[in-house]
């Protein structure tokens, strides 16, 4: 009897550059730079450490990007930080460019009783606030980077990029991974895409190309 039980299909979607065009975390950093220029002084003081961390550990590393985020948010209490995040979310939602072809694929999977995972390097709180009005969002599983308050500013508790996506998904559904399909705009997601039977690359215009 157990041998006839089929495992549910699992598919994975990246978010930034895949379901929509813009990068949430990158846009948040730019928003902070433009609207809170006094923190640039802190950033300049820490820039050598941030740059060295990026050179040694790479762009996907948590520490240098966490330090960058902290330098641009330090000095504000939790209430003010919450206001800043809400202002950013409102602005981002007004300019978001959804890729309808990719979103239709995601919705089709949901309607076909498939487990859909959105796995992104953008912070979970920002993703949830931006996508809360999308009807499909409550039906998907989300793995994202996590921001938290520490030392008077925001830091990244986790940064979900590259092979870290594999690690985080294994924690949720177990290893070895066996995914039906995967969608991403970036080669940084190749460590996860290798576990997918079908692999799709999303172009900058939101078109799907089979890998």
TrEMBL record:
Any one Gene Ontology molecular-function term assigned to this protein's record: metal ion binding
SUPFAM superfamilies given in the database record: HAD-like
UniProt-listed InterPro entries: HAD-like_sf, HAD-SF_hydro_IF_YfhB, HAD_sf
Top-level division of the source organism's lineage: Bacteria
Entry keyword annotation includes Metal-binding: yes
Listed transmembrane segments: 28-56
UniProt entry tagged with the keyword Transmembrane helix: yes
Keywords, comma-separated and alphabetical: Membrane, Metal-binding, Transmembrane, Transmembrane helix
Protein name: Phosphatidylglycerophosphatase C
């Amino acid at each position: 009897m157990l041998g006839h039980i089929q495992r549910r299909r699992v598919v994975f979607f990246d978010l930034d550059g895949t379901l929509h065009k813009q990068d949430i975390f990158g846009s948040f950093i730019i928003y902070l730079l433009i609207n809170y220029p006094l923190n640039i002084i802190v950033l300049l003081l820490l820039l050598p450490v941030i740059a060295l961390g990026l050179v040694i550990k790479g762009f996907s590393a948590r520490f240098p990007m966490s330090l960058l985020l902290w330098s641009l948010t330090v000095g504000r209490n939790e209430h003010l930080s919450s206001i800043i995040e809400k202002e950013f979310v409102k602005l981002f939602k007004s300019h978001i460019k959804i890729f309808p072809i990719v979103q239709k694929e995601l919705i089709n999977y949901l309607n076909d009783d498939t487990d859909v995972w959105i796995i992104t390097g953008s912070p979970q709180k920002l993703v949830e606030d931006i996508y809360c009005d999308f009807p499909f969002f409550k039906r998907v599983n989300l793995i994202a980077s996590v921001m938290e308050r520490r030392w008077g500013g925001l830091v990244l508790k986790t940064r979900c990029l590259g092979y870290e996506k594999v690690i985080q998904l294994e924690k949720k559904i177990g290893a070895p991974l066996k995914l039906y399909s995967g969608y991403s705009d970036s080669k940084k997601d190749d460590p996860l895409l290798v576990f997918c039977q079908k692999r799709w690359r999303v172009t900058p215009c939101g078109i799907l190309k089979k890998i």
